[in-house]
Amino acid sequence: MGSAASPAVEVEDLSKTFGRGRRAVRALDGLDLRVDPGEVVGFLGPNGAGKTTTIRILLGMIRAGSGTARVLGADPWSDAVRIHRRLAHVPARTALWPSLTGAQALDALEGLRGLTGPAPRRSELIERLDLDPSRRIRSYSTGNLQKVALVAAFSVDTELLVLDEPTTGLDPLMEEVFRQLVREAAGRGTAVLLSSHVLSEVTALASRATIVLRGRAVDDLALTPGTDLESVFLSHARTAAGTDAGTGA
């Protein structure tokens, strides 16, 4: 699975608990995850499996409880500012300034990255994603909000893309454009962590998939044209459901 270069994401035995005592919830329980440069890794699991918590730790939004998480060779909690200049993130639900136009929102996002003018591929991506940047953010549909986030993420060269349900609200034509963008980014050497409930999307893009259940990586499998990812995923999910039923959980 690997390359000779250092991994863009390296997580080992990662744990995180929210709350204390009887109300404590263990969101992560010894998770392992790795993404190498130029690799697209699918990050799969049902709601509550620990995917969002993992992504928040990788982005430096919350601190890990125990274990290690390295992003681009650095600690995402203590080196968040430096890391964020080298990665891009597309959230499942994009929230932007409602009074700004799409173009003004892109200006603001690019400014946060330290750019003093439009990103190199901004115009090209606006055209490819069929986005009207003159409209106010408040008038955008969910799909158009995602397009703004995608333009911001893919218009500059980054070392890591963290994509969390990135095609929310996109129509099938734009989903295909998204897939082309991911392939192009990986071809430039960008590492891509793709968290998605759309198994066909992961199968089409990823070379490997990590399946997470109850805060643990229960499988890490290479994806080939013959891989039936849906069957593998459902098998793990049913096993976990059966275990929960047997223990009364």
Strand and helix map with partners:
Layout: E1 9-18, E2 25-35, E3 40-44, H1 51-58, E4 66-71, H2 80-84, E5 87-90, H3 102-112, H4 122-128, H5 142-154, E6 160-164, H6 172-187, E7 191-195, H7 199-205, E8 208-213, E9 216-222, H8 229-247
Parallel strand pairs: 3-7, 3-8, 5-6, 6-7
Antiparallel strand pairs: 1-2, 1-4, 8-9
Helix pairs in contact: 3-5
Could you explain the architecture of this structure?
- With 249 residues, the chain is of the alpha/beta class.
- It has a domain at 1-86 and 162-167 and 197-249: P-loop containing nucleotide triphosphate hydrolases (Rossmann fold).
- It has eight helices and nine strands.
- It has helices at residues 51-58, 80-84, 102-112, 122-128, 142-154, 172-187, 199-205, 229-247; strands at 9-18, 25-35, 40-44, 66-71, 87-90, 160-164, 191-195, 208-213, 216-222.
- The strands form two sheets. The chain has a six-stranded mixed beta sheet with strand order 5-6-7-3-8-9, with helices on both faces. Strands 2-1-4 form a three-stranded antiparallel beta sheet, with helices on one face.
- The model has no long low-confidence stretch (mean pLDDT 94).
Q: What overall geometry do the principal axes of the alpha carbons give?
A: globular
Distance separating the two termini: 35 Å
Mean residue pLDDT: 94
Total beta-strand segments: 9
What's the CATH H-level homologous superfamily of the domain at 1-86 and 162-167 and 197-249?
P-loop containing nucleotide triphosphate hydrolases
Percent helix, as a range, is 25-40%
Strand arrangement within the widest β-sheet reads 5-6-7-3-8-9
| Count of alpha and pi helical runs | 8
Kindly identify the CATH topology of the domain at 1-86 and 162-167 and 197-249: Rossmann fold
CATH architecture of the domain at 1-86 and 162-167 and 197-249: 3-Layer(aba) Sandwich
CATH class of the domain at 1-86 and 162-167 and 197-249: Alpha Beta
Report the β-strand fraction as a percent range: 15-25%
Major sheet description: 6 strands, mixed
Instruction: Write down the Rg.
Output: 18 Å
Give the topology string: H per helix, E per strand. Answer: EEEHEHEHHHEHEHEEH
Uncertain segments are none
The assigned structural class equals alpha/beta
Domain ABC transporter: 9-239
Subcellular location: Cell membrane
GO molecular function: ATP binding; ATP hydrolysis activity
EC number: 3.6.3.-
